[in-house]
Amino acid sequence: MTEQNNRFDGPDENGFFGKYGGKFLPPQLEKPFAEIIEAYHRIENDAAFIAELRSIRKHFQGRPTPVYHARTLSLTNGGAHIYLKREDLNHTGAHKINHCMGEGLLAKFMGKKRLIAETGAGQHGVALATAAAYFGLQCEIHMGEVDIAKQAPNVSRMKLLGAKVVPVSHGLKTLKEAVDSAFEAYLADYENSIYCIGSVVGPHPFPMMVRDFQKVVGIEAREQFMEMTGNLPDAVCACVGGGSNAMGLFSGFLNDPCAIYGVEPLGKGGKLGDHAATMTYGREGIIHGFKCYLLQNEDGSPAPVYSCASGLDYPGVGPEHCHLKDIGRVEYVTCSDDQCREAFFKLCRSEGIIPAIESAHAVAFALTKAREMKRGTILVNLSGRGDKDLDYVIENWGLGDAAATA
Q1: Whose CB among 95, 241, 284, 327 lies 3.0–4.6 Å from 87's, allowing a Cys bridge?
Q2: Rounded to the nearest 5°, which phi and psi values hold at 359?
Q3: Which residues touch 44 (CB under 8 Å, ≥6 apart)?
Q4: Which residues contact 263 (CB under 8 A, 6 or more apart)?
Q5: For the chain, which domains are there?
Q6: Residue numbers annotated as active site
Q7: The pTM is what?
Q8: Cα separation of 192 and 186, whole Å?
Q9: What is the pLDDT of residues 8-44, one digit of tens each?
């Protein structure tokens, strides 16, 4: 490994983390993306920009979010103690607001008038609509029809905030198709718009930029955990779809002697089309302008994916995650729908916290890992709250009576 890779501070100037990332763009988008790269490098260390973003995080978002010792959950589970980084307590209910306010501020700096994005679970869409309202910008959110039906409360929130929600009706009508649609809209109006990608995916500079805006999660969590316990956590984990919440948390601990785990959705099982476990079953490929591990059909096209969590059903994954897997710094594991459901209800009933279904994947892994470890500590990124999922949960899982009495 190079010195740069040892420091975990990529990407290189072409946007590659090892052999993953880059920017594979149609010719007409090369100049707009070059302008975004130039603008971001101009402001990333600018004191005025940083001061404004810090003020927004403190006075608007409600940062810092706390680290919470889930004591009852830990004691009833047995083994290592589980701590939660409470990103669900952010304004809008998830970690997504961290990079959306940064992207909105960048758009304002660049003189753009409109924010365009995709969303799956709706948390990115709500956060970006919030940023657009805050900065006085137009907002257009592309969302698959399946996810629109599944995440109706978030669709209403986006519309209340003034965003235009564009239903996507082709393909599987979920997150991958929403990204396709949003890219097409950006391509048609890149002079007045900026495409605010919702995770650490896409062409350079977005994997780097979204990670940088999300680093606040790991920086806060490390300091808070040390203050609470006097030690670093033995293990750190987060759910991984595209991977923004995970990269935010992991960034604070990559140079520490902590085991780090990314938890992917196994869905209904290991058959192609029944899961979205990209790091476990994927192979190298290119999607949406970047190179990553990718779930693919035999012809190399992106495969259909599934997860009970709308925010995790993406066939690709962030390029930095791919690099961290290859060099062995992060271990990527899976969680099935059934394991997620059990963890969801356990957290509800033991701690009074209703998690996002995405976040429940990480909680499920932590419960199993804690029993294996028998002692020590695990820090989980609770990336979002479950308000958005209540209709789906009640319709498909009921109210958890069996889990409550188990």
Answers
A1: 95
A2: -65, -30
A3: 212
A4: 237, 238, 239, 240, 332, 333, 334, 335, 361, 362, 364, 365
A5: 23-58+96-206 (3.40.50.1100), 62-93+214-405 (3.40.50.1100)
A6: 96, 118, 383
A7: 0.94
A8: 9
A9: 778 999 999 999 999 999 999 999 999 999 999 999 9
